[in-house]
Amino acid sequence: MRGVLGGLVGLVGLSAVAGLLVTASVTPVLAMTGVAGTQALTLFDNLPENLNPGTPMEQSTIYATAPDGTAVELASFYEQNRVPVKYDQVAPVLYDAILSSEDKNFYSHGGVNVGATVKALVDNVRGTSSRGASTISQQFVKNVLIQQCEQDVDTTSETYSEELQQCWLDATNAVGSKGIERKLQEMRYAIQIEKDFSKNDILLGYLNIANFGGTVYGIESAANYYFSTTAANLTVAQAATLAGIVQNPNTFRIDKPEAGTGTNAEGVATNTAADGYAETADRRNYVLGRMLADGKITQAQYDEAKASVIEPLINPPTQGCAAAGRNAYFCQYVKSIIETDESFGETLQDRRDLLRRGGLKIYTTLDFRIQDPATQAMADIAPTSYGAYFGAAGTSIQVGTGRILSMTQNTLFSETVTDNPDYTSLVFAGDKKHGDSVGFPVGSTYKLFTLIDWLEKGHSVNERVNGALSTNMKFTAAACGGGTMTANTKEIGNFNSQNGYTGTVMNFTAQSLNSGFFAMASKLDLCDINKVADRMGVTLATGEKTYEDNVPFNVLGSKNISPLAMANAYATVASGGTYCTPRAIDKVVGADGKDRELPAASCTAGVISPEVAATAAYALQGVMASGGTGRDANPNDGTPLIGKTGTHNTYGTMMIESSTQVATAVWVGRSQGQENIYRQRYNGRELNLMRYPLAEITQRAANAAYGGDAFPPPSQDLIKVVLTQVPSVVGMTIDAAKATLEGAGFVFSQSGEVNSDLAPGLVALQDPSGQAPAGATITVSTSNGQGTTVPANLAGMSKAQAQAALIAAGFTTISPDPSCNPGSAVVTSSDPAPGTAASKSTPVSFTCQ
Length: 849
What we know:
849 residues, five-stranded antiparallel beta sheet, single chain, 17% strand, 35 strands, alpha+beta, four-stranded mixed beta sheet, rod-shaped
């Protein structure tokens, strides 16, 4: 009957005839279970006939791209450790081993071995055996059904493991009428798939889906796990061993050298390394014997393989981001995207199941040209074990695309929650959604948004502002209905405890003068400043808007924000005002080989105008120059850079820098708590200064890989020197003059006395007068009361008249020339000349005619 069915189905494809023969063959067996004859004749036809093998659970893999363009695996995620292979990626000797031991007539039958199946059914009914006696086609069907059952199990169920086990039991160990129905279903599906698929496809499908013990599925994973090789490179002995294992995976597996897979009557473990994996060896030798009998191997090959000792070379599979080593935190960031973005599933559980079952190939943006130097610098510079939750993180993002090129961290990656601060799965560079981090106060790097708002309001970077610390500085947040508030900015102070000064915004930016930026913000609106941050893609790390709470100290970066968001804000400036959504994934290929939809990402031009962006970059370049606070992070490799430093109190620091191609942000501080990192050293370097070499090394690598052009020139309107009218204070008291000038935004300065006919102590001279740059220093001099003026009308007077006029003007030394003695003589000239200002003690002479 086997031959008849094989001919009919295999050569003609008459499934109706095959069904009739199968039903007729099993009817006596059905009768043994009490199934009536009429039922027996229709049972086969009533079973579903179409089986879609679908895609088995496959591991998903995250890749980076090496400089030569090849994909480099970072980590994999799986429920079943399976790596599908193509037909030509399996050694022919493995096919021979499987077919000789499991189904030597595979290429000639039509999918069902009726005779062997009927015998198995009889044994099942009698309860004397639960063997399958199945063809490869039927075994493929059985595994597909198991897989479909397992995929339908709710992964969140408390009985998940038990339900998975039941899928296996239902498909393999059912007896009685259930067993018969299962076998009939296998047979019907096997007949169907023989029509729908080629023999090679069925054989390969079976080898890709079959279990090889534990969570090892598929021939490629089995070869790698048990022998640290590939399916294409299996030896005769290895192929026979794996062909033996698949027959009864959890009995013949060879990864339990001490525990074994069973026990003998004395309770001693069996199938162990000590007994040479005896049960597996027996099965292997059986396979070798079948191969020899079928002419698939020579006697010499048989003898050599049989004589060999089973020596597994176990290569334990690792899954999860811990396998990514130094790249684990970038991997975790990517994983969080898969688990949170609805393009990968409607629910969190759907997305997690897809990652562990869906066979995704996830190609990321990570660039080893930057990542490798950055991770090495992190390992060399930032200590993992320094106690008190000392942390460091860095990230680089491509300007104009938002592609995340590197992501590093000093801690050790672990999914397991622990009290040891050296271990964490939190991605410090990310936020709550992507990395489960709540961010950090970013310090003065947040001053960028005050600078942008300043420029957008039409102010110049060369405008002078009184940047002295103030006790009661006034601020507004009217744009959010916040009204007016005051702040004692002296509580914050400036670096090195300086009191501040009147200077330009260029100076304040390069030197990161807190009081200068407070003074700028007092002329703006706090809500507008925070809305600039929002517009440039910056939110709190927990997702809230930056402008939902507005207080003066926001100006100095008091809000918790992710380093990645801040790096991208500076990339927006470097791009000329185009904001791009940060993205870590370039492409995702599904198990079907087709590209999947990616998370939404876009670039938006004009988030800030090109003129404002260029002028902000002009000011920020001063930070990286020799007099700027970021000079120690400048690689000085010829690539133009913008940048900004940031410090929050004594426990957090940042350094951000960017070329026109890549922006880098580094944070160093306490991930928890507020213990001081200043005046503490590791390997001779202060903790708070580690941000500089970490950023410098990373940016140097970015510059080498991507280059960088000159930044566009600033807007002339935004760098002009602004002149304003200086109020005249001549004749005022010193106090009145000081109040008038400072009220007008100028800096008051006093410089001694001058000759003046004004009362002593009154302002007699100011410099400059008329117009001066806003915030300029106006120097005043007071009168000494000794000033007077040679009468302007002295010429033409008589000698007596001239002397009287000079005496009236206050001069004490008067010398008429003898030419003035005649009574008719009149004054023609004087020294000093008429109208000249002079001290009262100045000698005055005059001549007559």
